[in-house]
Amino acid sequence: MPHQQPTADTATDFSGLWVALVTPFRDGAVDHTALAALVRRLADDGVTGFVPCGSTGEAAALDEAEQLAVLDTVLTAAGDLPVVMGVSGYHLGKATAWARKLSERPLAGLLVAAPHYIRPSQAGVLEWFHAIADASTVPVLVYDIPYRTGVTIARETMLALAEHPRIRGIKDCGGDMAKTRAVIADGRLQVLTGEDHQIFATMAEGGVGAIAASGHVQTKRLVRLVRLLAENRLAEARAEWQPLQPLLEMLFAEPNPGPLKALLAHAGELRDELRSPMTRASDGLRERLVALDAKLSRP
């Protein structure tokens, strides 16, 4: 079934469990066969949607043609499920042109990070997001991840961004729970956590879901968790959540997506291959991950 353009009614609801997708490689090239199969499996497991070409997808190591090819593979494999494309950079002219080009695809939205490396003022941060949102014809999610960009988005700036009609939510990796609470209380932006270990806390506080790398593994359990949290069934959600803690900790014990790809490779879903300077997980971590995932998968 072809991927449909989101309607006005559904385009701005980002609640649920989105998977921050890995990019499979085979002998140095993108493995589109593995990527399509992975997306179809995750769709069958009940995820809400997909976010290709973020940090988990090693987007910094993909050129524009590769990113578009990845996006098209994901759109085709996703069927009717929504896709949000990751966008990052520090050259505003290139970023706005890229947003316009991406908007030609049937996307649910763009996930846009603050400009990395250059460390602008808060006024500059506003200009960056406003210009990209103006250039886009699809909704924009603000990716607040200061430990990657070097840019802190202040609470007042985030609330000012909520005034733009196309900016609809945030992927929250800001590490500032007071800011998270303020944005949730304000109500204009949907808050999805991007920190996998914060899924329970953020949703219990009123967040609407997560964009999670860990959604590739133990997927049905994480889908169930997010649904229980959305229904405010906290005791049942806690029973799903607590056994997952060691796995989530282990998945990020070495730079993402190394550990995740090791586990997916063990399951036969892709090759354990990354683009330098990203590296494979250590043998010891891989063995511990495989053992823990097997334990969690037992009935």
How does this structure look, described?
The protein has 299 residues and is α/β, with parallel strands linked by helices. Helix content is 44%, strand content 13%. The chain contains 13 helices and 10 strands. It has an 8-stranded parallel sheet. Helix 3 packs parallel to helix 4, helix 9 packs antiparallel against helix 10 and helix 12 packs across helix 13. The longest helix is centred in the first third of the chain and has 15 residues. 45% of the residues are buried. The N terminus is likely disordered. InterPro entries: Aldolase_TIM, DapA, DapA-like, Schiff_base-form_aldolases_AS. It comes from Variovorax boronicumulans. It catalyses: L-aspartate 4-semialdehyde + pyruvate = (2S,4S)-4-hydroxy-2,3,4,5-tetrahydrodipicolinate + H2O + H(+). Catalyzes the condensation of (S)-aspartate-beta-semialdehyde [(S)-ASA] and pyruvate to 4-hydroxy-tetrahydrodipicolinate (HTPA). GO terms for molecular function: 4-hydroxy-tetrahydrodipicolinate synthase activity.
SSE order and pairing:
Layout: E1 16-20, E2 25-26, E3 29-30, H1 32-44, E4 49-51, H2 64-78, E5 84-87, H3 92-102, E6 109-113, H4 122-135, E7 140-144, H5 146-149, H6 155-161, E8 167-172, H7 177-186, E9 190-193, H8 199-204, E10 209-212, H9 219-230, H10 234-241, H11 245-251, H12 258-266, H13 283-297
Parallel strand pairs: 1-4, 1-10, 5-6, 6-7, 7-8, 8-9, 9-10
Antiparallel strand pairs: 2-3
Helix pairs in contact: 1-2, 3-4, 9-10, 11-13, 12-13
